[in-house]
Write a structure and sequence with these properties.
By secondary structure, the chain is mostly helical. It has helices at residues 4-27, 34-67, 75-90, 96-112, 116-134, 141-153, 165-185, 190-203, 207-210, 218-235, 237-240, 246-266, 275-288, 293-308, 319-334, 341-360, 368-379, 382-385, 391-401, 407-430, 444-448, 451-464, 467-470, 473-476, 485-491, 494-501, 511-516, 539-555, 568-577, 585-593, 595-605, 609-630. The chain is built from 32 helices and no strands. The protein is globular and about 85 Å long.
């Protein structure tokens, strides 16, 4: 029988490995000479590879214990596991997939005991974990968020019977997340959020619920945050695509005006008033015609930059809303004015730069799943993309904001671009006809005059092919253990996510590359299953990126600690064995038949890799340091 000490030891060891893994990753951003940085990178990979099997064994053993051997567990066993579940929940860096699975396995035991207060924690824990996952997964996990948080508030009327003060907080944590986050995350309708907001507003007037404000100071704060969050969703309705009913909108107008007057009276100055209240108030005045949009913009611009200087005084501040939502609102409001185009442009660039700088380094203030959602909401929002004057500016913004947001994915994408460019030079020399498809509507002579454009397209496609993976960074950053089946299913969504992100008119030419780079040459294997790469007009470049993606991934001896690294020669043997099915046979033969190309590719993945990685690191680290200074 497994002892309680065994369980404690396993959890402590797992936590230690997890924290050390995060620490080693963070050290890669610290300034260092090339040799030292390479040692750090290799040391990080070695450590994560060494603990991977140990951590995986712990997770497997715990799962077995809670499922197949649950009849051997005593109450003390369950309470010990619960203790570490709490520790994981309250950690600065936690793992929602592991947390959700653990909570769901513990819930039946405490339901049988009718242990209300432990159930409150577990429901809240499961609600939080599924809520975080819903930021990158639009599937069934969204239903779980609403389900578990509603389970928490179903205990609302028992609040005066709770022995543990923290249990009372859980009720209002659930209200806050349901009202404020639910509609934006897609797991609660606006109507439900409105109903809960009114309910919360009502119970705040009841002595039964207000009596704990002193013993539980988080309660009034959570309630205010929840109601302000609903009002803020009304303010952001145009950006989010929300449709507020007239009743909901009038409720928000009345309450927002009341809140503004209350906050203005209590605050030390106008600039100490909550940002959400100020933005909502002046938006209402401009919509009503009490002031012009130009006046609203001038007031809010002045408030915004003076408020930013006061953020160090704020406690539990919502940085994402301030730097992303409100920066976007400023652009939106500016577009409603009749200001000269030159003045608008200058302000828009200022707001956009502030937003980009924040997103480039908001790991310091945001949880990783929240970061992913905010990054993609802002970067790919039509409001932002339409502020650029040409496709080149727009593409550079995407690469700088998104592709460079995760060092390993960025280095991989750059390696793929180098490999693709090298192969493409030989394609134009020896077999350019393979670049022509039935939908090309181009002769060979015409194609040969467009070599620079085709090469530029292939390089950009390589840089953007894994952009969907940047949308699931919390999953691919899990290096200290194997991915769970659920996490692997999320990972396989990255081609579709990439295609979704690249829906802008200037990026749509890259969508098929994002979708098809994990499909086999014959279209019979890989994912997404329903994407027809064989008949894509971009098939030649899909085939090229597919081969380059494979070559880099399996020869990467610096950062892919979960792979068995192979030599370039071994990889080429495998490509030759599977040409015609997995890989384009013309491209494989091109590499094998031209020694100069073979040597160039081998040089890139073997001798040149460290130089390329370090160059990318310098750019990435310098940006990180600059943005740290800004924040």
């Amino acid at each position: 029988m497994v002892s309680i000490d065994d369980i404690s030891y396993a959890f402590k060891n797992y936590f230690s490995n997890f924290i050390n893994s995060i620490s080693l990753d963070e050290k890669l951003l610290a300034p260092a000479p090339k040799e030292e940085w390479i040692r750090r990178l290799q040391g990080c990979a070695r450590f994560q590879a060494s603990v991977r099997q140990e951590d995986q064994h712990m997770i497997h053993s715990l799962n077995t214990l809670l499922t197949e051997q649950s009849d051997t567990l005593t109450a003390a066993h369950y309470d010990t596991i619960l203790k570490y579940c709490r520790k994981l929940y309250y950690a600065n860096s936690n793992e929602p997939p592991i947390l959700l699975d653990l909570a769901q396995k513990l819930i039946p035991h405490y339901e049988r005991l009718d242990d209300t207060e432990n159930l409150l924690f577990l429901y809240c824990c499961a609600g939080y974990a599924s809520s975080q996952l819903s930021r990158i997964d639009s599937g069934n996990v969204r239903k779980l968020s609403s389900y578990y948080y509603k389970k928490v508030i179903s205990y609302r009327d028992e609040i005066d019977t709770f022995q543990n003060p923290v249990s009372r907080d859980y009720i209002f944590i659930a209200y806050n997340n349901l009202i404020r986050i639910g509609p934006r995350a897609g797991w609660l309708t606006l109507e439900e959020s409105y109903s809960l907001c009114q309910e919360l507003y009502s119970i705040r007037c009841q002595k039964k619920f207000r009596q704990f404000d002193k013993s539980n100071p988080r309660i009034p704060s959570l309630c205010k945050k929840a109601i302000d969050g609903f009002l803020n969703n009304d303010c952001l309705a145009d950006l989010e695509g929300f449709s507020f009913t007239e009743n909901m909108h009038q409720f928000c107008i009345t309450l927002s005006k009341k809140r503004f007057e209350e906050d203005r009276t209590k605050a030390k100055s106008f600039y100490h008033c909550p940002a959400s209240t100020v933005f909502q108030y002046y938006k209402i005045l401009a919509e009503e015609g009490s002031i012009s949009w130009k006046e609203a913009c001038e007031i809010l611009d002045d408030y915004y930059f003076k408020k930013e200087k006061l953020l160090s005084e704020e406690i539990d501040f919502d940085h994402l809303t301030f730097y992303v939502d409100f920066a976007m609102l400023l652009i939106s409001f500016l577009n409603k004015t009749a200001l000269p185009a030159s003045k608008k442009k200058a302000k828009i660039v200022q707001y956009r730069l502030l937003l980009k700088n924040f997103l480039s380094n908001c790991q310091t203030v945001l949880e990783r799943y929240t970061l992913c959602e905010g990054l993609y909401f802002a970067t790919f929002h039509p409001l932002i993309l339409e502020t650029f004057e040409n496709p080149v500016e727009k593409t550079n913004f995407i690469i700088d904001s998104v592709v460079s947001s995760h060092l390993p994915t960025m280095t991989h994408s750059i390696m793929v671009s180098y490999l693709a460019e090298a192969i493409l030079k030989h394609v134009f020399l020896y077999c350019p006809e393979i670049l022509i498809t039935p939908k090309s509507h181009m002769t060979l002579d015409e194609l040969l005059t467009k070599q620079p454009q085709v090469t530029d397209y292939a390089v950009q496609a390589a840089l953007l092919h894994d952009i969907g993976k940047n949308g699931i960074v919390p999953v691919i950053m899990t290096q200290h253990r194997n991915l769970t089946d659920y996490e692997y299913s999320l990972l396989k969504m990255h081609p579709q996510k990439g295609a979704d992100y690249l829906s802008d008119r200037d990026f749509i030419v890259y969508r098929d590359i994002a979708l098809g780079h994990h499909k086999s040459y014959d279209g019979r294997r890989g994912y997404p299953v329903d994407f027809d790469n064989v008949h894509s007009p971009y098939r030649p470049i899909i085939d090229l990126i597919h081969i380059c993606d494979c070559i880099d991934a399996v020869t990467d001896y610096l950062s892919r600690n979960y792979n068995r690294i192979k030599s370039f020669a071994t990889v080429m043997e495998e490509l030759e064995a599977e040409k015609g099915t997995e890989y384009n046979p013309v491209l494989v033969d091109l590499i094998l038949e031209h020694d100069d190309l073979y040597r160039e590719l081998r040089f890139l993945v073997e001798q040149k890799r460290e130089d390329i990685y370090y160059d990318v690191y310098l750019t990435f680290a310098n940006k990180h340091v600059a943005n740290m200074e800004h924040l």
